[in-house]
Amino acid sequence: MFTTLAMLLSLTGSAAVTPAASNNQVDVALVLAVDMSGSMDIEEARVQRMGYVEALRHAEFINAVTAGLNGRIAMSYFEWAGSVNQTSLVEWQLIDDAEDAAAFADRIAARPVYTRRGTSISNAIAFASKLIATNPYDATRRVIDVSGDGPNNLGPPVDPARDAAVASGTVINGLAIIIRPSGSAGSLDRYYADCVIGGPGSFVLPVRRSEDFAVAIRQKLVMEVSHRQPVEQVVPVQLGPSTDCLIGEKLRPRLLDRVYPELDR
User: Fold this and answer.
1) What are the beta bridge partners of residue 205?
2) Domain of life of the organism in this record (predicted)?
3) Which of 28, 82, 121, 163 could bridge to 141 as Cys pair (CB 3.0-4.6 Å)?
4) Cα 35 from chain centroid (whole Å)
């Protein structure tokens, strides 16, 4: 009898600790890396910010979160330009219901909106990768969500930063803002497809009108949370000629000479 009672107590104890241990598990750890470079005017920056806020509060996003295997995700958010604006950082938060998502959206909305000079997608990816590596949750998937309206033109080249993140097991998706893109040769969505996004199932969505911001951001967040692929407006990475991933730097030749003097252009 003693042995049977001990076994029952042992099983009861194991059952009691299992839910607590699983509280650390999430379906995805998702970093939102949002471009606030000077090529956007302040109104466009506000529209983009509110697009994220509205998407996080939307029932479609909440439904995607709760429909997952664990029914919860972890999110972090920051804004970047030529460098990362660390004062914009919203630290990791567990989201498993509408109240959590609204609280996260409120933290984003409370930050002041302003733009800065330069576009360093590489610095944004590197910073997001550090956040992913140090996040406190056990995530089934790890995703960096990068928005931007121009090619990399400051900091290290973008494709090595992308490759390092993908090699660590992180997927990078892109939102190419083509409302009033900063000057570059070729299409920005193609640049994002060839130089920025990476990993299994990665994708880029273009935004061509300010009024489409909220819908596009919500669509992308839902796909990232639910691990769905976009039905349309996809830029397949394997099709067409490869993009010059240094095109942004080459549009700033003095910078290119100073930072990459060994390049044969």
Assistant:
1) 175
2) Bacteria
3) 28
4) 11
**Are the C-beta atoms of residues 101 and 63 closer than 8 Å to each other?**
no
With CA atoms as reference, report the closest residue to 130 among 29, 10, 260, 265.
29
Judge contact between 78 and 55, C-beta under 8 A. no
Pairing state between β 171-177 and 138-148: parallel
User: pTM of whole model > 0.85?
Assistant: no
Say if CB 48 and CB 147 are below 8 A apart: yes
What's the CA angle centered on 205, arms 182 and 250, to 5 degrees? 30
Tracing tokens 């498993």 back to the chain, one arrives at 96
pLDDT value, residue 62: 97
Which residues does residue 172 pair with via DSSP β-bridges, in sequence order? 144, 198
CA distance 89 to 80: 10
Q: Which amino acid is at 45?
A: A
Lowest mean pLDDT among 39-48, 124-133, 221-230, 248-257: 248-257
User: What's the pLDDT at 114?
Assistant: 84
Q: Residue 216: phi, psi to the nearest 5?
A: -65, -45
The Cα–Cα gap between 143 and 86 comes to 19
DSSP-derived 3-state class of residue 204: strand
